[in-house]
Design brief:
Shape of chain A: elongated
Number of strands of chain B: 8
CATH superfamily of chain A: Winged helix-like DNA-binding domain superfamily/Winged helix DNA-binding domain
Largest sheet of chain A: 3 strands, antiparallel
Number of domains of chain A: 1
Helix content of chain B: 25-40%
CATH architecture of chain A: Orthogonal Bundle
Strand order of the largest sheet of chain B: 1-2-8-7-6-5-4-3
Strand order of the largest sheet of chain A: 1-3-2
CATH topology of chain A: Arc Repressor Mutant, subunit A
CATH class of chain B: Alpha Beta
Largest sheet of chain B: 8 strands, antiparallel
Radius of gyration of chain B: 19 Å
Low-confidence stretches of chain A: 1-9
Largest interface: A-B, 47 and 54 residues
CATH topology of chain B: Alpha-D-Glucose-1,6-Bisphosphate, Chain A, domain 4
Number of helices of chain A: 6
Distance between the termini of chain A: 63 Å
Order of helices and strands of chain A: HHHEHHEEH
Structural class of chain A: mainly alpha
Radius of gyration of chain A: 22 Å
Shape of chain B: globular
Strand content of chain B: 25-35%
Distance between the termini of chain B: 17 Å
Strand content of chain A: 5-15%
CATH superfamily of chain B: START domain
Oligomer: heterodimer
CATH class of chain A: Mainly Alpha
Chain lengths: 120, 181
């Protein structure tokens, strides 16, 4: 459990950078679907949707199973929450810190400009 | 409305990025709108550092902040969290101090994974590209830091994020459907 989390973080991040793939995850969160269903839903070719599902599958966010001629997609087990949540939470912490750093830095810049004017 | 929300999301996403660069490395990147000598000052002067290192949204109270920024010098930060009975101390030593471009320090508090933090300040067109690089002693140490959520992340926070991501996903479905119809 602990071991695979880290190794797949980057894959998860890349997989989620695309709006269609996030949409597919939201869709699969409601119900399992075949690749054909998903292609219809997102008005996309079968080949295009296969690529998106492939990326999600490699990131472990989605699993697929072929029964007869139909490949059914479902959400991977809790990957989304555990991996992406952690990195997103960490990013939010740093984003909040840096927002406050921006304010400190703006103040320092103002002081520096005042000092330079005085020198001239 | 959808457009507004998604551009807001991408705006936020572009500001601070976090990447696991290898089994043992975690990298945080952000551009700050000031030259490196100014940004560097905000990392080495305790009175400035303590104004931004503990964002208000964390709900932590900073009790003390001592930074002896020179090679071999020590730093010590003490926090209090409303839910914790005892204050928490974070401390370590500076291994490298190169104004205004590079800082390296250790993380030695109890419970720390023992990672070494390197911050570089690189000038880019009058701004500073800030890269914070954490090198963990082993893959297991970083995995453990990730799985234990080393900074008191609780279920409530995870639920909020869950809602946020589900909201973003649902929004994408709407906008894709709207565009294609």
């Amino acid at each position: 459990m602990v071991q695979y989390m880290g190794a797949r973080l980057d894959d998860s991040f890349a997989a989620l950078s695309d709006a269609t793939r996030r949409g597919v995850l939201a869709q699969l969160g409601c119900a399992d679907a075949s690749i054909t269903d998903l292609a219809d839903k997102f008005r996309m070719t079968l080949t295009g949707m296969k690529k998106h599902v492939g990326v999600l599958e490699r990131a472990g966010l989605v699993t697929t199973e072929k029964v007869g001629r139909v490949r059914t997609c479902k959400l991977g087990p809790r990957r989304l929450e555990e991996e992406v949540m952690w990195i997103e939470r960490y990013r939010q912490l740093w984003d909040a810190r840096f927002d406050e750093l921006d304010q400190v830095v703006e103040e320092l810049k103002r002081k520096e400009r005042v000092n330079e004017r005085r020198k001239k | 409305m959808n457009e507004g929300r998604s551009s807001q999301a991408s705006h936020v996403k572009n500001r601070t990025s976090v990447e696991r660069r290898s089994d043992r490395e975690l990298v945080v990147t952000r551009t700050i709108n000031a030259s490196p000598h100014i940004v560097f000052e905000a990392w080495i002067k305790a009175e400035l550092f303590q104004r931004w290192w503990v964002p208000k949204s964390l709900g932590l109270e900073l009790l003390s902040c001592e930074l002896d920024v020179r090679v071999g010098g020590a730093y010590r930060l003490v926090f209090r969290h409303p839910a914790a009975p005892e204050p928490m101390a974070f401390h370590g030593r500076y291994l490298e101090v190169t104004p205004p471009s590079r800082l390296v320090w250790t993380n030695e508090e109890a419970g720390s994974a023992g990672q070494v933090t390197t911050v570089t300040f690189e000038e880019r067109a009058g701004q500073t590209q800030l890269v914070m690089h954490d090198l963990y002693p082993s893959k297991e140490a970083l995995d453990e830091a990730i799985s234990s959520g080393s900074t008191n992340w609780n279920d409530e926070t995870f639920n909020q994020l869950d809602e946020l991501l589900v909201g973003l996903g649902a929004n994408d479905v709407d906008s894709v459907a709207a565009r294609s119809s």
